[in-house]
Amino acid sequence: MNWITNYVRPTINSLFSRREVPDNLWTKCTECGTMLFHRELADNLNVCTNCGHHMPITARDRLTALFDGGVYTEIKVPEPVTDPLQFRDQKKYTDRLKDARKKTGERDAMLVAEGDMGRTPVVAAVQDFGFMGGSMSMYVGNAIVAAAERAVEIGRPLILFSAAGGARMQEGILGLMQMPRTTIAVQMLKEAGLPYIVVLTHPTTGGVTASYAMLGDVQIAEPNALIGFAGARVIEQTIGEKLPEGFQRAEYLLDHGMLDRVTKRTDLKDELVTILRMLMQLPPAVAGDLPPPHIDSHAMDEAAAPEAQAKA
After folding, report:
1. pLDDT-based confidence at residue 231 (cuts at 50, 70, 90)
2. Around Cβ 39, how many Cβ atoms within 10 Å?
């Protein structure tokens, strides 16, 4: 009996036991609670297939989805001075930067790239909320200026995806000074006659909303994105009135004229291509390529033979 218990049963159990399932195969939707398979969720650009809730997406994944074939070229961003104020709260600012870079794998809160989107050449700047809340730093200011300069240099429109909680407090006034800097960068595009389109994602607040995020020729937002300057509680305390439900959400702002469109993430690329080609006075985008017609030279020779005999 001991032989069966100690050897046979464990051997059989080891042969037929279930394999361990990795923890990252399924993601729970924070809105409806549906468990979503990771590949299905990634294919749908982190949009819940059950309720349509838009979950966070990294800047690199957004660029990959935006450009044709996921192919793009990054634009170099000038490096600012690190920690010019020698700022420290519970941790040193330099330590917070190291942690954010290790967590995200990015240099800072914005990526800039160029490539083709629906065969339309564009420059894109994408803010990553995962990097210190996408806060507007000197690096972010440099990134937007670099994007605008590159767009003007090669004559391409600029698309900017905003996602931020405001200016980076660890850089103080130097972070706030990016508001006028980026406004001037947007003005460069307007003087060059190039379109500037802003896609506001969840959340876009603070000094970002008060500067480059609201200066687009076309303002598009993702569904249910939080967009505003100050928080709802601060506004209620300031004006002493109860605010309407969802007054800082994308749909409310669309109804009240602050946005031009609210577009699902899965439909965003096609809409951007259509708008840009209209603004650039280009023909409509080609939805698909047809193979060239096959010409049978032997059949053509046979068809031409009677005509040749008649002329003779």
Report:
1. confident
2. 9
Question: By the 8 A CB rule, do 264 and 224 touch?
Answer: no
* Chain centroid offset of residue 41 CA: 16
Distance in angstroms (rounded) separating the CA atoms of residues 84 and 172: 10
Buried residues in 270-302 as b, exposed as e (16+ CB within 10 A)? ebbbebbbebbeeeeeeeeeeeeeeeeeeeeee
Residue 186 C-alpha from the chain's centroid: 19
Name the average pLDDT for the chain: 89
Q: Could you check whether the bond before residue 293 is cis, i.e. omega within 30 degrees of 0?
A: no
Quick one: pLDDT at residue 287? Answer: 72
Which residues in 236-301 belong to E strands, given as ranges?
Answer: 261-262
Q: Residues 20-52: pLDDT tens digits?
A: 555 678 999 999 999 999 999 999 999 999 999
Q: 222-253: string of b/e by CB count within 10 Å (b at 16+)?
A: bbbbbbbbbeeeeeeeeeeeeeeeeebbbebb
Task: Supply the pLDDT for residue 11.
Answer: 72
Distance CA 220, CA 211 (A): 16
Neighbours of 61 (CB within 10 A): 16
Alpha carbon separation from 146 to 107, 110, 111, 186, 270 (Å, rounded): 15, 11, 11, 11, 26
User: Residue 88: helix, strand or coil by DSSP?
Assistant: strand
Q: 120-127 and 110-117: which strand pairing?
A: antiparallel
